[in-house]
Write a structure and sequence with these properties.
This protein is mainly beta. It is built from no helices and 11 strands. The chain has strands at about 5, 10-15, 20-25, 35-40, 45-50, 60, 70-75, 80-85, 90-100, 110-115, 115-120. Strand 4 (about 35-40) and strand 5 form a beta hairpin.
């Protein structure tokens, strides 16, 4: 069983930056593929970024490529999402997720989810 707790969301102006953190419980965090997803009001949950267990492979949605960076610190059981050059269209609730295999861009393949953290970007 893994519990995930996100933090770091907030209100920021367009062009600003935020860093989201996702702290995980459990002794086997280093074996989990991790992903960040987001969901805006009235829209489906969408893939943002994912990273495999070693941190050596990271993948991004086209909409955030070059602006967002996912990373992980297995010693701290934490995965991060550094978000730069934020745009109003990045406004959403951001969720981290874990699965007991390679990371995936498909949210249905994840076993565990955090409660989400709100990111609001004003224009």
């Amino acid at each position: 069983q893994v519990q995930l707790v996100e933090s770091g969301g907030g209100l920021v102006q367009a062009g600003g930056s935020l860093r989201l953190s996702c702290a995980a419980s459990g002794r086997t965090f280093s074996s989990y593929g991790m992903g960040w997803f987001r969901q805006a009001p009235g829209k489906e949950r969408e893939f943002v970024a994912r990273i495999n267990w070693s941190g050596g492979s990271a993948y991004y949605a086209d909409s955030v490529k070059g602006r967002f960076t996912i990373s992980r610190d297995n010693a701290k059981n934490t995965v991060y999402l550094q978000m730069n050059s934020l745009k109003p269209e990045d406004t959403a609730v951001y969720y981290c997720a874990a699965r007991t295999s390679y990371s995936s861009s498909n949210y249905e393949r994840y076993d565990y989810w955090g409660q989400g953290t709100q990111v609001t970007v004003s224009s």
